């Protein structure tokens, strides 16, 4: 596998470039519009053909580069029915897969941060892209955009923590410079979701958070509902 | 191998935690003082025993956490004679090694950014920590702290670009969110050092850079010459 993890420093968003080493087919996961030139240049230099632009969810803090990636490379935009977004070329349901060369990405619905959050599991490589469902020692907020703490708790416990212990979990953000975690670590050390905390504990923790609204939500959510399509 | 890449967002410095999966012996490479709690907590949670605090060079933009790591964990500080730093527990010469469990880190002198820059090669895993000798599509500046563009060009071409093409190069910084590169890529695409550029080209490019002095050089360099020792 060809694998690159890339940060948008402005929003602390992690983007992932995943490619088949032999066929050079590749997917970009959670690309950020402001970083599209960096990402397209890197894919070209690595001799990768971008076949898919994949999102973990409808982001509220940045606009996806998916539409631009599609326009520039012919990549197909992957969406989920639950998201309500328009413009996807491929719609994947829970349990569905996207095949990138010989790599199989499986979509697992993990709602709770938003109602259409998807964790993409690359089982052959022992890793998963969790978006904002599980972050390193944290999780996405549940106070807007169909957020629901009970749903998130169940998603994480039933659909992410049930992956093998050593599964590498690549998050959608990290604000303290951490790149990756594992199922084992989050089960043990996640201060909200791990260490034996109950659903009730989690709901109480999430309810007590008093967070400002994301700065760019009014721009980002509508734009992401069309995969960052630029009006022509 | 247990491997973690960690960013200090303030200075865009990459820190690396490298451990033997079986013995749990580990080394912290280029730790940043402000991040020491994060790094020690992570090592403890991963059940790693920090045996060594290793530096790629005397940094001018941040203070190392090496001394604190030593005080807190008993890790030994690894230095090089060329650095002029005092307080190392282990002094490694060019070609010398540090053994972390079954992992062997080989020191390669790669001066030019500073006169004591060391690239640490972990050949068994196909990777190297280049510090500021080679960055992703860039390199460390050569205009202060014994910087010497001719020396850096030779270090990179003779001691880093001669590693196998697929060797993963983990840099000391990245200001655009990139995490890693390879020998192949930098030979081909590094705008200063790759693509067939000559030593003369490189010297001209580096001479033409007009960079402000690092903001924290007056604090960082003296502090790093004692591995960040805190006066008691």
Describe this structure in words.
Two copies of one chain form a homodimer. Chain A has a single domain, classed as Ribonuclease Z/Hydroxyacylglutathione hydrolase-like (Metallo-beta-lactamase, Chain A, 4-Layer Sandwich). In chain A, 24% of the residues lie in helices and 25% in strands. Chain A has helices at 36-45, 66-73, 149-160, 183-189, 199-208, 217-224, and strands at 2-8, 13-19, 25-29, 49-54, 76-79, 90-91, 97-100, 103-109, 118-122, 127-131, 168-171, 181-182. A six-stranded mixed beta sheet of chain A has the order 1-2-3-4-5-6. Chain A has a six-stranded mixed beta sheet with strand order 7-8-9-10-11-12. In chain A, β9 (118-122) and β10 form a beta hairpin. The model of chain A has no long low-confidence stretch (mean pLDDT 96). Chain A binds chain B through residues 4-9, 12, 35, 38, 42, 45-46, 175-180, 185, 188-189, and chain B through 4-9, 12, 35, 38, 42, 45-46, 175-180, 185, 188-189.
Keywords summarizing the entry:
homodimer; alpha/beta; Metallo-beta-lactamase, Chain A; 6-stranded mixed β-sheet; 6 helices; globular
């Amino acid at each position: 596998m060809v694998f690159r993890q890339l940060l948008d420093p402005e929003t602390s968003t992690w983007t992932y470039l995943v490619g088949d080493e032999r066929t050079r087919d590749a997917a970009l996961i959670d690309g950020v519009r402001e970083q599209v030139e960096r990402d397209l240049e890197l894919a070209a230099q690595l001799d990768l053909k971008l076949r898919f632009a994949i999102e973990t969810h409808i982001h509220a803090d940045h606009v996806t580069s998916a539409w631009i990636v599609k326009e520039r490379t012919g990549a197909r935009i992957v969406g989920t029915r639950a998201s309500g977004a328009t413009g996807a070329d491929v719609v994947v349901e829970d349990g569905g897969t996207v095949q990138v060369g010989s790599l199989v990405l499986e979509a697992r619905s993990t709602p709770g941060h938003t109602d259409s959050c998807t964790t993409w599991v690359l089982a052959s490589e022992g890793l998963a892209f969790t978006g904002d469902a599980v972050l390193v020692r944290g999780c996405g907020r549940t106070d807007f955009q169909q957020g629901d703490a009970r749903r998130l708790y169940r998603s994480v416990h039933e659909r992410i923590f049930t992956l093998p212990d050593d599964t590498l979990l690549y998050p959608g953000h990290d604000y303290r410079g951490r790149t990756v975690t594992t199922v084992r670590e989050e089960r043990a050390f996640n201060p909200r979701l791990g260490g034996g905390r109950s659903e009730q504990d989690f709901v109480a923790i999430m309810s007590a958070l008093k967070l400002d609204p994301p700065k760019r939500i009014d721009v980002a959510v509508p734009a992401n509902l069309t995969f960052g399509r630029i009006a022509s």
